[in-house]
Design a protein that fits this description.
By secondary structure, this protein is of the alpha/beta class. The chain has helices spanning 21-29, 46-52, 70-82, 94-108, 185-204, 210-232, 237-253, 262-272, 276-287, 293-306, 311-319, 335-344, 354-364; strands at residues 4-7, 11-14, 34-39, 58-63, 88-92, 133-137, 149-153, 160-164, 172-175.
Length: 365
């Protein structure tokens, strides 16, 4: 597989061995020391050592949370300034990418993170005055490596905040399928499900965005097509490549917004330990039975494009086991409480009412 270069507008180097492109990108974009942000789980890994061969002078900062927290963002920004860094390299999962984006923002922007919240007009407060960010995802479903958004949890009330701006898109990304070869099969399966949920949710969401719709359709097809190969041979490089492109396309698909299930899935994860990706897939599948006629037409288009059907059954089959919220011990009696908490989060870009969210939860239960 030859290394290919694309612009999305992120400059993307893709292919087996593409990690070596980091060296040239580093020399071009980050002349001095870099802050290298990675997941705690990667700190002592062979995968990180491989990336470090091309990373140049750096200071290491590791994130510990599956979802970046405000205090980690502030600590990282302080380290960046103290060490006089001139750019950021993000290595690892979507959490590492999001943490790096938050640090990048706070290095040059002095308001609180809440002041940049998208639903409150925060995008207008973000300028192009940001240090360069090089993204090196090691999880093939890390769409955050090419997306304009970050999701962070505020410390005071644990509320989730979405911050979106075209200026937050990483300066360049290195997408090398070989960086995923040390991941366990379950991590790869969750990566596939995450990309699938985002693509399907975006395609079925409200709003007019033909480019996002096209990306979501093709991203869904690539991931569905890769699932059988991943189940038989989890480290199949062609299947991993399809996951990477499915994730990149899901980032384009978020142009319609984060989708209606994101906030609910995060609430289920934090309160009941349902894996975020699993919760989101189950919610998307449940929502397919509660759609109006125009959306049902879109479901038919999606089923024909990805050559699966019924779509809800295909999504649950991809989860394989524990395909209902009750299987994860989520109490049916608390659906209204979960719905109220979820709709208080401005992550819900479509402003669903608590009753609508509760109906969706019960359909997934």
């Amino acid at each position: 597989m030859a290394i290919s270069n694309f612009s999305h507008p992120t400059e993307i180097s893709f292919g087996l061995g593409a990690v070596a492109a980091l060296q040239d990108l580093r020399e071009q974009l980050v002349p001095g020391r870099a802050l290298l942000v990675c997941d705690q789980a990667l700190r002592d890994s062979a995968t990180l050592q491989r990336v470090l061969r091309y990373a140049g002078a750096h200071v290491l900062f590791t994130g510990t949370a599956a979802l970046p927290a405000q205090n980690e963002v502030l600590d990282g920004a302080e380290l960046y300034v103290t060490e006089e860094c001139q750019g950021i390299i993000a290595v690892g999962s979507a959490a590492a990418m999001e943490l790096a984006k938050g640090i990048r923002l706070k290095v040059t922007h002095t308001l609180s993170l809440a002041d940049y919240e998208s639903s409150l007009g925060g995008a207008g407060r973000i300028t192009a005055d940001l240090p360069p960010l090089l993204a090196v995802p090691t999880l093939p479903g890390a769409a955050s490596a090419v997306s304009p958004s970050l999701l962070v949890q505020l410390e005071r009330n644990q509320r989730l905040v979405v911050i979106t701006s075209p200026y937050l898109i990483p300066t360049a990304a290195v997408q090398d399928p070989e960086l995923s070869l040390d991941l366990p099969p379950d991590a790869l399966r969750l990566a596939a499900l995450g990309g699938l949920a985002q693509n399907v949710d975006s395609y079925l969401s409200l709003g007019f965005h033909p480019i996002a719709d096209g990306a979501a359709l093709e991203g869904s097809r690539l991931i569905f097509a890769a699932l059988p190969a991943l189940q038989a041979h989890p480290w199949d490089l062609q299947a991993l490549s399809s996951l990477i492109w499915g994730a990149i396309l899901s980032a384009i698909a978020t142009g319609k917004g984060p989708g209606v299930t994101q906030a609910i899935a995060h609430r289920l994860h934090r309160s009941y330990a349902v894996p975020y990706v699993i919760a989101r897939v189950l919610l998307v599948a449940a929502g397919l039975h509660t759609q109006d006629p125009p959306t049902r037409d879109r479901i038919g288009i999606l089923e024909r494009h990805v050559a699966v059907g019924p779509l809800a059954d295909a999504l649950r089959a991809a989860v394989a086991s524990k395909t209902r919220l009750r299987d994860w011990h989520v109490p049916e009696s608390e659906m209204d409480l979960i719905a109220a908490a979820s709709t208080n989060e401005r992550v819900n870009s479509y402003h669903l009412e608590p009753g609508q969210v509760a109906a969706l939860l019960r359909a997934a239960w």
